[in-house]
Amino acid sequence: MSGVISCSSENKPAPGSAEIDEIRAYADIATKAALEGISENNRDKYIQYGNAQFKAAVTQEVFDKSAGTINSQLGSLNSITFLSTEEKDGYTIVHYRAKFSKGEVGVRMVFDKEHLIAGQWFE
């Protein structure tokens, strides 16, 4: 919903590593809250773990339009599954598979050094 950050597979932590556990400790909570915020049409919940730039970019108008589109196409959130993580340009990128009532989609969450959401994309 904010600027585009490209990602690559370089610098991936090894599966099951302590680093992945540390990333998931903040990323899973923030991702679940953001996706629930979309399903519930609740902007405050959606941006609660966002950094200042993310919060500024996701105005109520932007949120309403995006949430409306996502909810009409995918339905309500059922579950999220962690897939992988990587580092790129000082950001931590975490990939999930999200299951909704009408289908499933990849979700890419981008976190800054303070572990706050800097970007989010459906893939």
Work out the count of structural domains. 1
- The CATH topology, please? Nuclear Transport Factor 2, Chain: A
Structural class by sheet pairing and helices:
alpha+beta
Radius of gyration: 14 Å
Spatial order of strands in the largest sheet: 1-2-3-4
| Total number of helices | 4
Could you name the ranges where pLDDT drops below 50 across 5 or more consecutive residues?
1-11
Percent helix? 25-40%
CATH architecture: Roll
Q: How does the major sheet shape up? A: 4 strands, antiparallel
Notes on the structure:
The chain has 123 residues and is of the alpha+beta class. It has a single domain (18-122), classed as Nuclear Transport Factor 2, Chain: A (Roll), CATH 3.10.450. Helices cover 39% and strands 30% of the residues. The chain is built from 4 helices and 4 strands, in the order ααααββββ. It has helices at residues 18-39, 43-47, 52-57, 60-74, and strands at 77-88, 91-100, 103-111, 117-122. The protein has a 4-stranded antiparallel sheet. Strand 2 (91-100) and strand 3 form a beta hairpin. The longest helix has 22 residues, at 18-39.
Features:
4-stranded antiparallel β-sheet, alpha+beta, 4 helices, Nuclear Transport Factor 2, Chain: A, 4 strands
Précis, in short:
The protein has 123 residues and is an alpha+beta fold. The protein is 39% helix and 30% strand.
